Amino acid sequence: MKVYLETYGCTLNQADSDIMGGILRHAGFRVARRPGGADVVVLNTCTVKGRTENKIISRIEALGKQGKRIVVAGCLSINKKRVRDACPEAVLVHPGAVSFIADAVRDAAAGKIAEYRERAAKEGLPRIFTKPILRIPIQEGCVGNCHFCQTKLARPYLMSYSPGWIRSWVEEGVRKGAKEIQLTGMDSGAYGLDIGTDLAALLGEVRKVKGDVRIRLGMINPGHAKKMLPKLLDIFEDRKFYKFFHLPVQTGSEKVRKEMNRAHSVADFRAVVRAIRKRFPDACISTDIIVGYPTETESDFLETVRLVKEVRPDIVNLSKFASRRGTKAAELREIATDIVKRRSTELSAIVRMVGAEKNREYEGRKMEMLVLEKGNGKQEYGWKGRASNYKQVCVLGKAKIGERVDARIIGSNHGSLFGKRI
User: Fold this and answer.
1) So what's the pLDDT on residue 85?
2) Which of 148, 191, 237, 241 has the fewest CB atoms below 10 angstroms from its CB?
3) DSSP code per residue over 39-69
């Protein structure tokens, strides 16, 4: 039987898909490259944004009209009614139940309506090991209760994987040719709070793995980062670690931050960024911001604008607020759409300006990059990779995937650097 696996959303979801792909192969299924020839289509879904949910629902409806048997896995499984309205026969697999994916596929193929909610450990499960990039989940769930977050409802329990298993996954990946390791979680900073350890201890263990590899740490909330800053920064001195920090602040207003029920302050975010840049001046800072939270006034919005101009993050994942079912924020009266759109447009322009200005500072410099991707043949810059601070570099000249090359930066835009191999 052929199964097609399609993934939406974050790196944690992609890591879950690697596990599902491994389980399916181990169970004797063939993983198809396209949905056309597949007997069953598995959609590993995301629910963080309403726009993404609508896109996935449209995809489910289209596949259903084609007569496809469908398994809906991932976070959208909590919106069971909407999934069932789109495809009454869909089999649901909640994020904690990915170990049952083979059973779910068999149910779908047989036309049996089923739902898998059981929580089961993912340690020791088969997985697909990819190169040059390997995604490894270190935890899921979090200890926060942000009022806007539906993902917390889909992954409600903190579950950290043991350091021994994580290290063994890294070692196996390196043996199989991985050059970049992405350690991912719903909130990496919460790692270990349920098993008597912490993120710094885990990274100290992972750094012992031998091999020419780069490690990217996933999202860590500012409050967690602040508590472990000295140890964390000491570990990041190791050349293995990209000098990349994803620290979601969500708003520049302390008032709105409290109303969002965020477990950190805007001041914490500022302090963490200052400490990182003092130790690593070229560190790449990524953050997330929501524009138009229901309690956001014009004054609150301007505080967010000031924060972006002051901190000058390299990357800002900007979202317009969208009400998510089951959350506290869904009970609030939303701001007029035209106001949210105007604020988003204004801040987007500032974000692009800051990104472009920061990237221009690299022009003329020599940078080492890890080549991770080949262009599509139509691009002048035929290779893409990451510098030591995770800046994307598009490079001219001969290269091969997994190779480290030196490049002179000859141009930039708000999102990328452009270099020539030297």
Assistant:
1) 96
2) 237
3) SEEEEEE--SSHHHHHHHHHHHHHHHHTT-E
Q: Whats the size of the chain, residue-wise?
A: 422
Q: What is residue 36's predicted lDDT score, i.e. its pLDDT?
A: 87
Instruction: List the CATH code of the domain at 366-421.
Output: 2.40.50.140
Residue 245 confidence (pLDDT): 98
Burial class (CB within 10 angstroms; exposed 0-12, middle 13-18, buried 19+) of 237 = exposed
Instruction: Report domain extents, the chain.
Output: 2-116, 366-421
Helices (H), 236-336: 254-260, 266-279, 298-311
Neighbour-count burial of 386, counting CB atoms closer than 10 A to its CB (0-12 exposed, 13-18 middle, 19+ buried): buried
The whole-model pTM stands at: 0.94
CA Rg value for the chain: 22
pLDDT at 379: 61
Rounded Cα distance between 156 and 97, Å, is 13
Q: Which two tokens stand for residue 162?
A: 């043991």
Sorted by sequence, the CB contacts under 8 Å of residue 24 that are 6+ apart come out as 3, 5, 31, 101, 102, 105
CATH number for the domain running over 2-116: 3.40.50.12160
Per the rule left: phi > 0, alpha: psi between -120 and 50, beta: everything else, 141 is: left
71 phi-psi bin (left φ>0, alpha ψ -120 to 50, beta other): beta
Q: What are the pLDDT digits (tens) for 23-64?
A: 999 999 999 989 988 999 999 999 988 889 999 999 999 999
Supply the pLDDT for residue 377: 56
